[in-house]
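Handout, page 2. Input:
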Amino acid sequence: VQLVESGGGLVQPGGSLRLSCAASGFTSGRYTMGWFRRAPGKEREFVAVITWTGLSTYYTESVKGRFTISRDNGQNTAYLQMNNLKPEDTAVYYCAAGGAGWGHNWGPDFWGQGTQVTASS
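Output:
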């Protein structure tokens, strides 16, 4: 299984970015996907998760109303639309997939290599 993220970059506070995560190697399309992030000097934290159907999503409190997770199963790709970015959103963002659990208790089986997101003026 391979997860490849793209879409990170530098944006001014208040700006937007959309991250993509292309998955390959799964034998079935029925796998949870989501995002974590690690800010400088901090532990990795959960950001958002989506079921394989796309019908259920869950977000960490700090991004609710600003971030939207979605997926296109035909393209085996998940997305994280990030609006109104704040300096505290600056982190390496990791795509993840598979595993068990939900929300902050989700434990993925597979991880991407990460993409840097920086919100700074």
